[in-house]
Amino acid sequence: MINIKKREELDIKIDKTVGKPFINDAKFSTRNVDVFYGEKQAIFDANIDIGKNQIIAMIGPSGCGKSTFLRCLNRMNDTIQDCHISGDIKLDDEDIYQRQQDPVLLRARVGMVFQKPNPFPKSIYDNVAYGAKLHGLAGSKIELDELVEKSLTRAGLFKEVKDSLHKPGTGLSGGQQQRLCIARTIAIDPEVILMDEPTSALDPIATAVIEELMISLSKKYTIAIVTHSMQQAARVSQRTAYFHLGYLVEVNDTNTVFTNPEHQLTENYITGRFG
Amino acid sequence: MINNTKKIKNQLAKRYAKEKRFKVYGLSAIAVSIAFLLSLLINISTTGFPAFQQTYINIEVDIDSKLLNLNDKYSEKALFRANYRKVINQSLKTLFPGVKGRKQKKALRQLVSKGARYQLRDFVMNNPSVIGTKQSLWFLARDDVDVFMKGGIDRSLPESDRRLKNFQLAWIDQLLAENSLEKRFNVNFFTQGDSREPEQAGIKGAMIGSLLTMLVTMLLSFPIGVSAAIYLEEFAPKNNRWVDIIEININNLAAVPSIVFGLLGLAVFIGFFGVPRSIPLIGGLVLTLMTLPTIIISSRAALKAVPPSIREAALGLGASRVQTTFHHVVPAAMPGILTGTIIGMAQALGETAPLLMIGMVAFIADVPQGVTDPSTVLPVQIYLWSDSPERAFTERTSAAIMVLLGFLTVMNLLAVIMRRKFEKKR
User: Fold this and answer.
1) B404 and B328 in one domain?
2) Tens of pLDDT, residues B177-220
3) Mean pLDDT of A179-207
């Protein structure tokens, strides 16, 4: 059954990204981005703008390249041996893949939260303070203490952990760990936060807490989130991008994508015909 | 459904039996190894324990300046060179007046150790006022007497088959009757270097030699091995032909017989660089070559086991590769790295073969003071003693093995403690 459906899907042509991939006042803009893992091409000609102080959700079936695309935005793919990227990715009109771009500086501006909560095997305090120490953001111990408290408060975790700041971060629950990772990311005050399925390992209650957190963070930060949950995309994002087999099929306002999708593939996916 | 339940039920007994059988195999394997280990330990400790005691003979010595051949000169040099042997021999003669014949006189002199004269010399030089008086002193007994006292010579054997003849046994009986023969704790064994005379031979030289050699090995192999492992695992390009060649070579080196490293050390360090032989420095260099592959392989395995999510977390925060490695990956891998290092060091501590090639098998009586003093090490000392004909060396060989095992236990304990410490930190 599924196989037959897939074959039908493949017959639908993907020429050009439909919808409204380009906007004014873009934080990130990518043009003609191709990504290869060795011989295999994972992303085909992705063109999209990511708006400032917006949440953009990237959805699509497994293996469609949405995580790969996300990891291009802070050059995390550099660590993969035979990964090649061509095309332009601009952050504030600066090409992040140009020679002068320092990936360390880029990652301080573009933070990332991963699918599986991955706190360092250190205390909660040290987890949050690590980035600030790394980049020399806090001049004194008092400043650092303030920064840790502020970051944990903004991640909605401070009340729960204020008495156990020096206990290991790995001892927290999954949802708390993920909020700790978010606190760790916002402690260095990045401009963009990339989230790669941040709630896929969490229960619905923890998910709701993190979604609320995302919405409140989007006032200050630009957020790009990869998710498998279409409800989540609908709940938190202003714009939605749909990926399919490495192609960016459709980008539009979230409402439009979910109520009136332009492309047949998008419609098939959001109506649950496959995926 | 019911059919399936029946099928599964029928097989259950078989499956449980298999599990039980496997348990029995495992337990019996452990039991056999424990039995072997116990028999080894019991054998070694029963042979070795007597070595921790030593027989002493009480003799009243007449410290006469004439016998000492001092000629009324009491300078330090004269005291050092004085004839203490004569004083002791004279005292023995007074103790057993009836001794006649060359053979018996020689046997009488051999009741006490050759070291007795140095014992007397040290005593006199520390208290020159004793010259001209009679002193009752305890001297080291000769190894044959010592062996007899520990039950190593059977009185019921025919005289021709015994190390001690009838007249010697009579002397010993007389001394025993006078309470002049006593077994005491063998301090010499822990405070002296090697000697041709078993009663004077001690393990301190080999112990210090082993410590110094281990120190050199540790200081060289840990930093070199760990940094090589970190580079190969974290920084070297993957799928690179040169890296592959290096990796294959390291794996091969781990399997090379240790004596080959000895030959390599002989050719390169001694032959080419002119490092003196028989010293802890060269021993440490050769053992470093030998332990490096072990340390590199186990450190790489430990680094590989660090979950990639930690690396991603650090990189995602803007840490550089070096910072990611040293702030997060290496600390997480430290318990494994330390275990590998200690295994390598324990292997090096027990190694004999490569050291034979670089002259650490020489007879060295002095305790080494530094890494450039000639010395030997514990396993080589064991080898040397086990090769000696004197009966009294048998127990010393076992005692030395006990000391070596003690060292190994301490090292492994240290490894466990350090592991715990690093794991707690996480």
Assistant:
1) yes
2) 888 899 999 988 999 999 988 889 999 999 999 999 999 999 99
3) 90
Q: Does B323 touch chain A (CB under 8 A)?
A: yes
CB contact under 8 A, A114 and B316: yes
Identify from A112, A123, A177 which residue to disrupt to test chain B contact, counting B C-beta atoms within 10 A and taking the largest count: A112
Residues B252 and B307 in one domain: yes
Q: What is the pLDDT of residue A3?
A: 47
Closest residue in B to A106 (Cα–Cα)? B318
Interface pTM, i.e. ipTM = 0.86
Distance from CA of B324 to the nearest CA of A (A): 10
Tell me, yes or no, whether B165 and B232 share the same domain. Answer: no
Containing structural domain, residue B149: 53-185
Same domain, B233 and B169: no
Q: Is the pLDDT of residue A201 over 50?
A: yes
CB contacts, 8 Å: B332 with chain A: 121
Q: Give the phi and the psi of residue B60 in degrees, each rounded to 5.
A: -90, 115
Nearest C-alpha in B relative to A123: B426
Q: Do B181 and B224 fall within a single domain?
A: no
Cβ atoms of B404 and B378 within 8 Å: the answer is yes
DSSP E strands, A157-200: 192-196
Which helix H or strand E contains A110, and what residues bound it? strand A110-113
Q: Domains of chain A, with CATH numbers?
A: 2-270 (3.40.50.300)
Q: Do B146 and B116 fall within a single domain?
A: yes
pLDDT of res. A13: 65
How many domains is chain B built from? 2
Q: Decide if B224 is inside a domain.
A: yes
Best probe of the B interface among A83, A118, A186, by most B CBs < 10 A, is: A118
A216 Cβ contact list (under 8 Å, min separation 6): A154
User: pLDDT, tens digit, for every residue of B109-145?
Assistant: 888 998 888 889 999 888 888 888 888 889 999 988 9
**Do both B239 and B358 map to the same domain?**
yes
To the nearest whole percent, how much of chain B has pLDDT over 70?
99
B383 Cβ neighbours under 8 A, 6+ residues apart? B352, B361
Mutate to test the interface with A, among B306, B317, B321 (most CBs of A within 10 A): B317
Chain A, nearest residue to B237 by Cα: A81
- Tell me the CA distances in angstroms from B177 to A124, B152, B251, one per residue in order: 77, 20, 66
In a domain, B338, yes or no: yes
Tokens 């041709």, residue located: B196
Residues B255 and B172 in one domain: no
Mean pLDDT of B401-419: 90
Q: Is residue B40 part of a domain?
A: no
What distance in Å separates residue A133's CA from the closest CA in chain B?
Answer: 10
Q: Quick one: pLDDT at residue A4?
A: 46
